[in-house]
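I hope you will forgive my troubling you with a question about protein structure. You will find the record immediately after this paragraph.
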Amino acid sequence: MASADTAPTGASGAVDEPTPGRLDDPEVRAMFDRIAGLYDRMNSVMTVGLHHQWRRRAADLAELSPGGRALDVATGTGDLAIELAARVAPGGEVVGIDFSEKMLELARAKAGPLVRFQSGNALALDYPDAAFDAATVGFGARNFSDLECGLSEMARVVRPGGRVVVLEITTPRRPPLSTFFELWFDHAIPALGRVVDSQAYSYLPSSVKRFPDPQELAATMWRCGLREIRYVLTAGGIIALHMGVVDAR
């Protein structure tokens, strides 16, 4: 697991022109509403079912205890929130937020009373400072229209000493995995997606490519007030799990 106990280095230049793989918030919301019904099935196909294992690892990194409180941002159909709920039981609480109502409908049906799901904006969380013991985001950070704002909000609502965990796809840099990744994400996934929603599954590869690499993401987390930052790469370098501890205010 890589570490960043001092400020990590990373590029953070402003972008003046539209960035490939980025959509406005209303477009992202509409896209996820459209694909909600097939979202879980497509995740399982694209990851050969491994996305559940990665979410379990993300929940482990949150280091929650029974009776704790956790927030899952961009919760989608709620799989990571459900993993968190198992760790705060009995007596704890997990809140999952998303701006796609169709996704939330499926999450509520899946989770039952284990998790409280709410409509919410990741860039303006409607919770007081230090309200949670941990906050997570699984495969949703690359959809934030302002990554630094979203991570800062997650850090704000977590108590000092609590954890922020980011689970995201990352682009491997070395062959042969980089070659496989390019073939899979640039060709196979868009081809599969044409059956479901061509915009959504052409957006996915582009959004992954423009997302910061692991060291850059660690640098962004540092700027957002997180410390003791660690990250681990898994699935041959395709999946990155980042963890940071909220600094004392």
Observations:
- Residues 96 and 117 are 5 Å apart (CA to CA).
- Confidence is low (pLDDT under 50) at residues 9-20.
